UniProtKB/TrEMBL annotation:
Residues 70-110 form the Glycine zipper 2TM domain. The keyword Iron does not apply. This is Glycine zipper 2TM domain-containing protein. Keywords: Membrane, Signal. It is found in: Membrane. It holds the Pfam family Rick_17kDa_Anti. GO terms for cellular component: outer membrane. It comes from the Bacteria. Residues 1-27 form the signal peptide.
């Protein structure tokens, strides 16, 4: 009985192999070419903003320095000495006082010149703004081709040229 069951198993395996071979023989894959009728690039627009900057020079006033006292003191002493040289008695005292006052005023004006304009310098000022930067890029090709009298369209990552390589699969309809 064991011999018969092994024989039956062998026949079953052989039948399955034959069915698979028949199916494989009926299905076929091969390469062929189709004629390209039209290729249209698939273009995508995108924005890549960028910075535009420019530098301008703006005038800046420098503050005056604090008023000095040295010119008034030296001018007052010099004016007092000169005033003391003029006149005699009470006149000499009045001339000394008047010379000291006049000398102090002249010394102050020489040190802290009121007519001298403020110092103006220029400082760079940077101004930036963001501007749109639209660009285009091709992200594929819509390829229309003919094969055995029928028209097909497919999106491909490249332009195939005048003909497109096709993978054809033939199988029986079950």
């Amino acid at each position: 009985m064991k011999r018969q069951s092994r024989a039956a198993q062998s026949k079953a395996v052989l039948a399955l192999l034959c069915m698979g071979a028949a199916t494989a023989a009926a299905a076929a894959d091969y390469d062929d070419y189709g004629r390209v009728v039209n290729v249209t690039p698939q273009v995508e627009q995108f924005n890549s903003p960028r910075q535009e900057c420019r530098t301008e020079y703006a005038p800046v006033q420098q503050p005056r320095q604090a008023r000095g006292m040295g010119g008034s003191i030296i001018g007052g002493i010099a004016g007092g000495i000169l005033g003391n040289q003029v006149g005699g008695g009470n006149g000499r005292t009045a001339a000394t006082a008047a010379g000291a006052i006049a000398g102090a005023i002249v010394g102050d004006r020489m040190e802290n010149n009121q007519n001298q304009p403020e110092v103006v310098t220029e400082q760079p000022v940077r101004h930036c703004r963001t501007v749109d930067n639209w660009q285009s890029r091709t992200n594929g090709y819509a390829v229309t081709y003919e094969y055995h009298g029928r028209t097909y369209t497919s999106v491909m990552p490249y332009d195939p040229g005048e003909r497109v390589r096709l993978r054809v699969s033939v199988a029986p309809q079950l």
